[in-house]
Amino acid sequence: MSGIEETAAQLDALGVRRNGVLLVHTSFREVRPIEEGPLGLIRALRASLGPGGTLVMPTMTDGESVFDPRSTPTYCMGITAELFWRQPHVLRSTHPGGSFAALGPQADLICAPQPLTPPHGRDSPPGRVHDLGGQVLLLGVTYGECTMLHVAETMAPVPYSVVHPCWVEVEGVPAKVMIPESDHCCRGFERVAGWMRTRALQREGKVGNANAMLADARDIVSVALERLRVDPLVFLCPSSAACRECDEARASITSP
Ligand SMILES: [Zn+2]
C-alpha cells in the first residue's frame, strides 16, 4: 500500500507543476492500493499541486437524462473522478454530456459556461486547461482517454463530426438535442504516446502501481496538430479495421 505522502512525492518526481493546472485522467484499479483509496489519491494530487494549484477531472455523463451538475453520476470516468466532483468546494461545469470538475484558483474559469458544441473545443474545460498552460496526467490509462486530443481535433479542424444525443431542460421541459462532435473509438489517440516520447515531451514513471504519463497540454496539442496537418484522419482506424465508430466518423465527411 502506498501512503499519501509517498504518492505525492511520486507525483512531484514525475514533474507535476506546483501551483499549476493539472487535468487528470485515471483508472484507480491500476493505481491501487493507496492509503484512503481514491480520496487518498485526490489528497496526494492536491498536495503535489500545492494550495495555488487547480485539479481538474472529466465527469462526463451518459446523456440519457437531463444533466444536473449537483446529482448526475459520471459515466465511465472511474471512481476517482466520481468521488472528486462530490467533494466540498469542487466545481462542476454544466455541459449536459461533457462536464468537468475542478478545484483550485482557476476552477471558476475552467468550469464557466461553454457552447454545447463542440463539447471539447477551445472554449471548454480542457481547452481552457490548454490556454492556461496546464499539464495533463494519464494515470493508469492511455491517450485513448485524453480529452486534450479532442481540443486538437477541433483546432485542426478535422473533417469528421458525429452527433450524440443529450437531454437538456428548455423552459422546464426535457428536450433532446443532438450535439455534433469529433468522435470515434479513440484508439488512434494511443499513438500519441510514442510521438511524445520520441520528442522527449513526456515524463513517465510509477504513481502507486500505475504507469503514469505527464505532459504539457500545449505540447500534446501541438504534436497532434503537426500530425493532423499531414493527415486529418490520422486518429481514425483504417477502413480495413471494420471499426464501427471510426467508420461512422469517416462516413460523416462530406466532399468539398
Ligand atoms: Zn476505431
Describe this structure in words.
The protein is an alpha+beta fold and 256 residues long. It is built from 10 helices and 9 strands. The longest helix is centred in the C-terminal third of the chain and has 14 residues, at 217-230. Residues 184-185, 187, 237, 243, 245-246 line the site of zinc ion. The site of zinc ion has 7 residues, from helix 10.
In short:
The protein is of the alpha+beta class. The protein contains ten helices and nine strands. Strands 3-4-2-1-5-9-8 form a seven-stranded mixed sheet, sandwiched between helices. The chain has a two-stranded antiparallel ribbon with strand order 6-7.
Topology:
Blueprint: H1 4-14, E1 21-26, H2 28-31, H3 37-49, E2 54-58, H4 79-85, E3 91-92, E4 100-103, H5 107-110, H6 125-131, E5 135-139, H7 148-155, E6 162-170, E7 173-181, H8 192-198, E8 202-207, E9 210-216, H9 217-230, H10 244-251
Helix pairs in contact: 1-3, 3-4, 7-9
This protein binds zinc ion (ZN).
Zinc ion binds at residues 184-185, 187, 237, 243, 245-246.
